[in-house]
From TrEMBL, chain A:
Chief location bin: membrane
Stored Gene3D superfamilies: Cytochrome c oxidase, subunit III, four-helix bundle
Residue spans crossing the bilayer: 21-41, 56-75, 82-100, 120-144, 165-184
Protein family according to the UniProt entry: Belongs to the cytochrome c oxidase subunit 3 family.
Domain Heme-copper oxidase subunit III family profile: from-to ranges: 18-186
Gene source species: Jeongeupia chitinilytica
InterPro entries according to UniProt: Cyt_c/ubiquinol_Oxase_su3, Cyt_c_oxidase-like_su3, Cyt_c_oxidase_su3-like_sf, Cyt_c_oxidase_su3_a-hlx
Protein name: Cytochrome-c oxidase
Keywords: Membrane, Transmembrane, Transmembrane helix
Automatic annotation (TrEMBL), chain B:
Presence of the UniProt keyword Transport in the record: yes
Keyword terms of this UniProt record: Cell membrane, Copper, Electron transport, Heme, Iron, Membrane, Metal-binding, Respiratory chain, Translocase, Transmembrane, Transmembrane helix, Transport
EC number: 7.1.1.9
Region (Disordered): 557-579
Protein name in UniProt: Cytochrome c oxidase subunit 1
Organism of provenance: Jeongeupia chitinilytica
Domain Cytochrome oxidase subunit I profile: 13-544
Stated role: Cytochrome c oxidase is the component of the respiratory chain that catalyzes the reduction of oxygen to water. Subunits 1-3 form the functional core of the enzyme complex. CO I is the catalytic subunit of the enzyme. Electrons originating in cytochrome c are transferred via the copper A center of subunit 2 and heme A of subunit 1 to the bimetallic center formed by heme A3 and copper B.
Subcellular location: Cell membrane; Membrane
Amino acid sequence: MNDATTRTDRPDPDAAARLGLWVLLAVITVLFLQFIQAYAVRSGSADWLRLPEPALLRWNTLALLLASVALQSAAMRPHGTIPLWFGGLFGCAFLVGQLLAWQQLRSLGFGVAGNPASSFFYLLTGMHGAHVLGGLLAWGLLMVRVRVRARHGADIAPGARLCARYWHFLLLVWLLLYGVLFLIPPATLQVICGGS
Amino acid sequence: MAYPEQDHAPHSFWTRYVWSQDHKVIAVQYTITAIAVGLVALVLSNLMRLQIGFPGRFAFIDANHYYQFVTMHGMIMVIYLLTALFLGGFGNYLIPLMVGARDMVFPFLNMLSYWMYLLAVLVLMGSFFVPGGPTGAGWTLYPPQAILPGTPGSGGGIVLMLVSLAIFIVAATMGGLNYVTTVLQARTRGMTLMRLPLTVWGILVATIMALLAFPALFVSAVMMLFDRLLGTSFFMPAVVSMGQALAYKGGSPILFQHLFWFFGHPEVYIVALPAFGIVSDLISTHARKNIFGYRMMVWAIVIIGVLSFVVWAHHMYVSGMNPWFGFFFATTTLIIAVPTAIKVYNWLLTLWRGDIHLTVPMLFAIGFVSTFVIGGLTGLFLGNVSTDMPLSNTYFVVAHFHMVMGVSPILAIFGGIYHWYPKVTGRLMNDTLGKLHFWVTFVGSYAIYFPMHYLGILGMPRRYYAYDNYAFIPPSAQQLNAFITVAALIVGTFQLVFLYNLARSAFNGLPSGPNPWGSASLEWQTPENPPGHGNWGSALPEVHRWPYDYSVPGTSTDFLPQTSTSPLGCEAKPDRTAP
């Protein structure tokens, strides 16, 4: 019964948005853990095939990392919008790179339906890409707000901080997927996930 | 995404009733849509019963249609009616009013949530009109049969079902973000977590569960769509279908079952926990007695929520599993009975020596306790591996889950609607029609589902279209089935009384006044009834007590509203020497 935990007339909009984002990140985390769990179970079957790693993926990872860094620096500097632009730009570069990686893999003869490992590759990267796209949408809204609020001199740092946090999260998810798809041997993964 | 301008008060018809961002309007939109689609599912169930009760008498119900009716009835009732109505309907209406907020914290997202839900419903209804009709794979949509030719609706039907589910999950996530954030961030001054009505606790924990469980359904829906549309083999093993070997190979149908039930079991409690909360509040208010063991009730809700994530494989005993696995899941399943029983005892102890008013909401609340206990007890048989094996594919299971998660939550919903209707409209629903509706629904539900337990123990298999040439099924079973069908038709028809009452009372009901039930919780203390935009007029209320101060000794009224500053009541530090 501690009154200090309760709120005054208007809830703090930034605090609400921060909590909302954390809840959303929890939901997305569960989503990808479920996908990875399914991957671990399926990778134990006899028809599993190891996938060659498209060389482009490392560059894409770098692009996503740079996007994260750029947005973080935007969040820490409330007035310059240039890092914000770079954040979105690297985000787009990542998506384009992923599409090219799909093409690389397809030209090597690994289509969506060919074998379970490549099915999972397209599924997982596609799901992650959809979340990057959602992040770019939020980034676009933020940029609109930058244009509108520049005239009123309002602070865009809270929005930039949310964007940056989402991007760090997307980077973490991507690193996890990268590891699952190419670095961790399926047998190890099955031990971790308790698959058979 | 951020908190929008506070003064987005609507001005035109369109912004007020259609593109509304007001949680109260969105709640009504959710409720009406859910009731409409639930009506479709009700008709489907009666069509099913016509075939089972009077096999072959109705030529238009062939085997394919029968399976489509079964599937759509189940999926609509569980997801599009119960989940949507509890969270989108009750959650939306009650959370801001009960915690003392002006609206949800993300009103635009809230509006989007409703329109996504409507889209999901329309896509699902669209599957009735595609070639081949809706899917008839059973509501669990098990692969491989769900997407293979030979199963009705394996063309467009199953695709639309999966797409609709994916859209619904997005809608539910948008709503869920709002409910959780609003409860945690937008409570008014003095409204601590331990002063929340149990309705809010039930909806809050159910929402958290929905946010964590629905991703598993999303994953299975997306992967099944890949299998169906892109030819992958996530769930599909090598199959010879109609004499032809298909391109699928190596997939795991059991993997789908795990994913599905990892969602599916928490789903049971996603509809049960809000019902628990609503029933607690109804019983306390209409018995004029504080809820027995409030803290215990809260913890029971939380513990049930956690446990429900580690019991899912009890739906899969008949799929075969390591005996130790079965042992684990049987144990966790039976442990859930402990917090659940605590809740039942606390309801009974709240009623004990209460000043019980048998109003329509109270009748439904007591009806809920009755059906929930019956349905819960049969769960003990099905939770044990050895007794589940012979019963799993029989009508015993149909009886069990309809009592515990069909009839019980819908009784709580009816009770809640009769109770909060004056809040929404400023008018009371007709009492006589309400009692007629209750007695027919309550007695009728027992008439429908109680005999099914016997049919199940007799070994009568569920899911069958017809029972020709099953020597072990005696003719009396068929008579019982005809009886059940007649009861189902009567109960189904009498829901029209409810709809009539719901519609007519909005305009012709008796004016209710601001607080017709003498309720202590915050939603009844608004300056206007029904509450205007922003709910609280110029200043937010201040809360000084829990919502259950009924029949407090030493006060002139028989309840103290949460806003009362009286020094008496449950949180007062009493003179311990007084008896």
